[in-house]
Design brief:
The structure holds three protein chains of three kinds. Chain B is α+β, with helices and mostly antiparallel strands. Chain B has helices spanning 2-26, 34-63, 70-75, 82-87, 93-114, 122-143, 168-183, 185-197, 204-234, 244-269, 273-296, 309-333, 348-380, 388-410, 420-444, 451-477, 483-505, 607-627; strands at 507-513, 518-520, 524-535, 539-550, 553-557, 560-564, 570-573, 575-578, 582-591, 597-605. In chain B, strands 2, 3, 4, 5, 6 and 7 form a six-stranded antiparallel beta sheet that branches. Chain B has a four-stranded antiparallel beta sheet with strand order 1-10-9-8. The N and C termini of chain C lie far apart (65 Å). Classes of the chains: A alpha/beta, B alpha+beta, C mainly alpha. The interface between B and C is large, with 63 and 48 residues.
């Protein structure tokens, strides 16, 4: 074996090891995703029997929070959302694949952090937004969805990804 | 008490491996000091006995429901039947690592005790065996101990194991797979010993050849069982998804297949020695790499254990050190290896040499597919997914080339250039048959057949017809036929054909039916006759009674959906009606708002042929190992 | 566009498929469309699962996506348009078939690897 080639047998394993060591060290940080999605057209009922369409929320900055009465983690993030509401952050609720009465009762029992709550029973708006489950939170700024966060929203995630918009 | 004894025995085993290792290290390398080697061997043997005893005690603990042991509490339950209590031991990381190490020590123990103690390599074999075992035992004891206790208040009962794991195939799949992985530790330590010794005497290949064949058989069986389980249990009708965890089992298998071919050339003709050495090291290193990927959790896969960076880093380092030592030995020592002769172009040896390149290309491609998403994610902040479309596209030409190699090398001779016209004339008929049949499938099939499917189909038929032809010539003309090669390659050809056929011919229907409703089409009638709800000890299930009338036959199906109490997990139990040609595979979906249920009805062709072809490949290898006494 | 056209399609669907095939959830105009559907759900990744295609997933979002893809096919949308729809919402990782032009290294390396090895080692006499 030529003397130079033999070093490849050492170099390849070493670079693979270094690569994976790097991957391991990085694999802990998972931030939310920045997006650039136009708010989809929709026309849906809200939980208090009004009708909402995309035109109603196409200007201004809002949080859209995907929630459901069957979602356990939503209960965990709920106090933080109330906190945000008290601080003046406008939150639009997207009630995902939920029974209307169950949803209304949930809000009655736990207090509503939402300005208004869309009843997306079939999940059509959710599918257009790219929702995979609850809880998820989106940032809507002047008709464009600019952030998506999957999972529970808490103070660290808020500071990291959303606080700058308010 | 007993957990402590088991734990202590394991620690003692580690200590003895360490001692055995140090004894050799400090012994005089020039003179072979008999009593030192004997001491080292005795320590090694004692360590293995201790490890076996520790494991037997652990099995006892699992069977006796000792829930003060944290691992048993987390993965077993007093309601489980006995063999699921035992299999729960290898249902997660710590326990399966324990099993893996147990098998490793047993394989090496058997090998070491059958070696000639007078051989120069003996000391090195013990050295490397003890080293590898020591590393992994330390890993087990320090980072992944199955012996942790929950004291003073042990739980009264354990948590349930994932219902998907309560299945006979899952009982046997990991043990078979591990026997395959660790079986290749034998060629690994022997090759390290051979390189460390540096004398390079002849005949080293024959010592490990039979061991390698058995290891290959286990590895193939282990992977096959995994696919079999996925098909019957997971409910989506597929058997291979190119999931990262499947891929890291495939890589050692590809290298192992290359190794078995290369070592054949080395024993028969004294060539390709460097290749054989390199491949022999690679198989084991690739299995260690696979263990790292699966157990560190850094890659998204349905199969992987939880993400644990510390554990991942430790495994990475162990694999890295072992790889560097062995590849270092290879690169610095193998210059002195001399082949017995030159390779004649167009001879069987030259085809085997090209085959090695083909197989490591396939290992490389799978490896690239596994790490590419990591590269793009961490260096370019883009997420890319790699799945069947990529692997099928890359493997199609590789398989075609492999089929051509098989075709050409079957007729080729050792050390002599192939006779072009003679070879091609023998291949003429198989080529015609393959083209003809592929063309027929293409034109008759109602959907379009993709190029990849056609390549797979053609390659499969080509290989089968070559060997069918050879069998014919053997029975009519008494022409020589290498039975083991014929059976294994026939199995391989059948595998390609069945995979392609399954992909081309299978289809499905997604139905929604209310109870007592029927679906009627030209070919079949399906009626949803009944839905019953039943309570079992650890789950609740609904059973649907489906009757299908197809080609004047009536078949009944009872697929189920189960909800397990402890974890709230919902599983779907498929019902399958299998015939020689195809499986009819029915699954319950979900209930819709109007009370009707969705059903997924699949017609999966040639599934049984896939399992059969895997068995054929293994049979061929067993024929070979029987022939080598 | 999407929600409105979906309602339109549901009406069309029921107008054309009133009788026996009303029980087939994914009824297509012809076998070509049917094949496109099953190929697409094999190539598109389930957004919620750790790994796996839409075809192999029972998750609610997978089912919704499958239904939406079904309607998009009936609506004569091309494969690329459907994939773009999914990618825009769920990210590039939704496509199990990474694009050739953006991933040249991925697609070409195996070939380059094979050819280089054949040139450097395959034709050697002393190996």
């Amino acid at each position: 074996m030529k003397s130079k080639i033999r070093y490849i047998f050492l170099l390849v394993p070493i670079s693979i090891i270094v690569f994976f060591a790097y991957v391991i060290s990085q694999s802990q940080n998972e931030a939310s995703q920045p997006l650039n999605l136009e708010l989809p057209e929709f026309q849906l009922q809200t939980l208090d029997d009004k009708t909402l369409s995309e035109k109603d929320i196409s200007s201004g900055t809002y949080l859209i929070n995907v929630w459901a009465s069957w979602c356990i983690t939503c209960r965990v993030e709920h106090p933080f959302l109330i906190d945000l509401k008290d601080k003046g952050v406008p939150i639009i609720g997207l009630n995902y694949k939920d029974n209307k009465d169950d949803a209304i009762n949930w809000l009655k029992n736990f207090k509503s952090p939402y300005e208004i709550s869309i009843h997306d029973f079939y999940g059509t708006l959710a599918l257009d937004l790219g929702v995979t489950g609850a809880p998820e939170t989106y940032l809507l700024k002047d008709g464009i969805i600019v952030r998506r966060h999957i999972g529970e929203l808490n103070i660290e995630k808020w500071r990291q990804d959303f606080a700058e918009f308010f | 008490m007993i957990p402590e004894i088991s734990h202590l025995l394991t620690i003692l085993a580690a200590g003895l491996f360490l001692f055995s290792f140090l004894v050799i290290l400090s012994s005089n390398a020039l003179s072979s000091n008999d009593s030192i080697i004997r001491l080292s061997l005795n320590c090694f043997n004692a360590a293995t006995i201790f490890l076996i005893s520790a494991f037997i005690l652990y099995v006892y603990l699992a069977v006796m429901d000792d829930f003060s042991v944290k691992y048993i509490a987390m993965h077993s339950n007093s309601d489980l039947p006995i063999f699921y209590k035992i299999s729960s031991i290898w249902s997660s990381h710590e326990g399966s690592m324990f099993l893996w190490i147990l098998f490793l020590s047993i394989w090496l123990w058997l090998f070491v005790n059958r070696l000639d103690t007078q051989s120069n390599l003996f000391r090195y074999v013990i050295f490397f065996s003890a080293m590898v075992l020591l590393f992994f035992l330390l890993f087990l004891l320090v980072t992944s101990s199955p012996f942790e206790r929950i004291l003073p208040l042990a739980p009264i009962n354990g948590g349930d194991i994932n219902p998907v794991l309560q299945d006979p195939a899952l009982v046997i799949h990991p043990p078979m797979l591990y026997l395959g992985y660790v079986g290749f530790a034998v060629p690994f330590v022997y090759i390290c010993a051979y390189l460390a010794d540096g004398e390079f005497r002849q005949g080293w290949e024959t010592i490990i050849q039979k061991w390698s064949l058995y290891a290959w058989a286990f590895l193939t069986l282990g992977i096959g069982l995994g696919s079999w389980w996925a098909y019957y249990e997971l409910g989506w009708g597929g058997y291979w998804f190119w999931d990262p965890v499947e891929n890291v089992a495939l890589m050692p298998w590809l290298a192992a297949t290359a190794f078995t071919h290369s070592i054949h050339a080395s024993t028969k003709s004294g060539v390709l020695k460097s290749w054989t050495l390199f491949l022999g090291l690679s198989v084991f290193i690739l299995s260690l790499f696979g263990a790292f990927i699966v157990r560190s959790g850094i890659i998204d896969s349905v199969h992987s254990f939880a993400n644990d960076p510390q554990r991942g880093l430790t495994l990475l380092l162990i694999t890295g050190v072992i790889a560097l030592i062995s590849f270092g030995l290879f690169s610095f020592r193998s210059t002195k290896i001399v082949n017995s002769r030159l390779v004649v172009s167009g001879s069987k040896e030259s085809f085997l040499s090209l085959n090695n390149i083909l197989m490591i290309t396939s290992v490389f491609s799978v490896f690239l597919g596994v790490i590419y998403p990591l590269i793009t994610q961490y260096f370019y902040s883009t997420k890319v997914s790699i799945g069947p479309p990529y692997y099928n596209t890359i493997f199609a030409p590789l398989i075609f080339i492999a089929a051509c190699f098989i075709a050409l090398s079957v007729e080729s001779k050792w050390q002599r250039k192939w006779k072009v016209t003679e070879t091609l004339s023998k291949l003429g008929i198989p080529i015609l048959i393959s083209c003809f049949l592929t063309f027929i499938v293409q034109s008759l099939h109602q959907y379009s057949v993709s190029l990849i499917q056609m390549i797979g189909l053609f390659s499969g038929i080509f290989i089968i017809s070559i060997y069918a032809f050879k069998l014919l010539m053997n029975s009519v003309n008494r022409e020589f036929i290498n039975w083991s090669s014929a059976v294994s390659h026939l199995g391989f050809g059948l595998l390609l054909f069945s995979i392609a056929g399954n992909s081309i011919f299978s289809y499905e229907k997604n139905l929604k039916l209310n109870v007592n409703e029927e679906y009627i089409s030209e070919e079949l009638e399906i009626s949803f006759d009944d839905l019953s709800l039943q309570d079992e000890s650890n789950h609740q299930r609904i059973i649907a009674q489906i009757n299908m009338k197809i080609h004047d036959k009536v078949i009944s199906f009872s697929p189920e959906k189960r909800k397990y109490f402890t974890r709230g997990q919902v599983t779907s139990e498929t019902d399958i009606e299998a015939t020689f040609l195809r499986d009819i595979y029915i699954n319950i979906g979900e209930q819709l708002d109007d009370g009707s249920w969705t059903f997924r009805v699949q017609f999966n062709y040639l599934i049984k042929w896939i399992w059969f072809s895997v068995l054929l490949m293994i049979l061929g290898i067993l024929i070979r190992s029987r022939a080598m006494v | 566009m999407q929600s409105f056209s979906r309602k339109y399609l549901i009406v069309l669907f029921f107008l054309f498929h009133l009788d026996l095939s009303a029980n087939d959830i994914y009824e297509f105009k012809d076998s070509y469309q049917e094949q496109r559907f099953f190929s697409l759900i094999d190539e598109i990744r389930c957004p919620k699962c750790t790994s796996g295609s839409l075809a192999s997933s029972d998750a609610p979002v997978s089912k919704d996506l499958k239904d939406r893809i079904y309607f998009m096919i009936l609506d004569e949308k091309s494969d690329q348009e459907i994939k773009d729809f999914v990618i825009q919402r769920y990210g590039k990782q939704s496509d199990y078939n990474p694009s050739f032009s953006e991933n040249l290294f991925l697609w070409l390396m195996p070939l380059i690897f094979f050819i280089s090895f054949v040139i450097f080692f395959g034709l050697k006499k002393r190996i």
